[in-house]
Amino acid sequence: MRSISATMFVTLDGVVQGFGRPDEDTRGGFGHGGWGARYNDEVLAAEMGKGMAASGAMLFGRRTWQDFIGVWASATDGNPFTAHMNAARKYVVSSGLADADAWENSVLLRSLDDVAALDADLSIIGSAALVRSLHAAGLIDRYTLVIHPVTLGGGARLFDGPAPLTEFELTGSVATPKGVIVAHYTRVSPGRR
Fold it and tell me: According to the UniProt entry, where is the signal peptide (predicted)?
């Protein structure tokens, strides 16, 4: 049976916007981009490596997929994440893209129904709007929340808007030397499958 796992980098106040770079996502005048970089360390890298080692395809929303193309598609840095990202089957959900030819091994999906019809294990990194939609549809099976010890006071939050009552079980956690908590949750109540 297909499963969908989402890895989300989040602040203590629930912000998921602009984790990686100052220019990553400035929508709404967001000025705190790149807030996550100072919390990187070997423990966090090892935890993220475990997620990358899992089998299955990747699932993206349009914005994150296009952003990742700029970061990963032409990289030649020898980073093991680069090799993984480029080799993996990538599904991008978009009603506006004409095609998914800009990044190797990418397949265009038009709707959440197309996602639900896939018979593959899928992992999501980022893509907050897509995660919100999938969660509302009861399609997220597991979350890895990478919780950073910072509040930003503004920005797009993970669960903005309506979401169904869904219960999750904590299945593991790791604290990094810089205070990041990597928490793994598995859904135990059905949501609206």
Answer: none
